[in-house]
């Protein structure tokens, strides 16, 4: 990781996104990161230059300094391979798609709820509603004078015949 990348971490923005239960873990992580940055900043960014000419004059063993110089300059410490960025980007893309889908679903629900709210707002207030208005509004959930029922007034306990209409018309 470069020094600039470590300096560029926006800890305040990160802290805003972390849930309260995880704040202590974030604080501990930031402390470790700050200690690492402090140790790293104590060292120079590039390796110090070696004065090979000076060592060639001082060391009398022929070829020794040349061999050390060749080995030193060919030394390469490999940076660990990045095996996770592609996976993280794929997960990020997938999550973004899920979020967009969720937003669309919620917006559809919001629109349906607004339509329902508009219907309620356009309705006659209950304090001014007559029984006929209520029957018109809720035909299945209201007592209907032309439909005689017996206790407990549920569909399962009622007789399923037309005797009620016959008895009404016959004057019994």
Automatic annotation (TrEMBL):
Principal subcellular localisation of the protein: mitochondrion
Positions of region (Disordered): 136-172
Domain of life where this protein originates: Eukaryota
Annotated localization: Mitochondrion inner membrane
Alphabetized SUPFAM superfamilies for the sequence: ATP synthase D chain-like
GO terms, molecular function: proton transmembrane transporter activity
Keyword terms of this UniProt record: CF(0), Hydrogen ion transport, Ion transport, Membrane, Mitochondrion, Mitochondrion inner membrane, Transport
InterPro entries: ATP_synth_F0_dsu_mt (IPR008689), ATP_synth_F0_dsu_sf_mt (IPR036228)
Family designation: Belongs to the ATPase d subunit family.
Task performed by this protein: Mitochondrial membrane ATP synthase (F(1)F(0) ATP synthase or Complex V) produces ATP from ADP in the presence of a proton gradient across the membrane which is generated by electron transport complexes of the respiratory chain. F-type ATPases consist of two structural domains, F(1) - containing the extramembraneous catalytic core, and F(0) - containing the membrane proton channel, linked together by a central stalk and a peripheral stalk. During catalysis, ATP synthesis in the catalytic domain of F(1) is coupled via a rotary mechanism of the central stalk subunits to proton translocation.
Name assigned to this protein: ATP synthase subunit d, mitochondrial
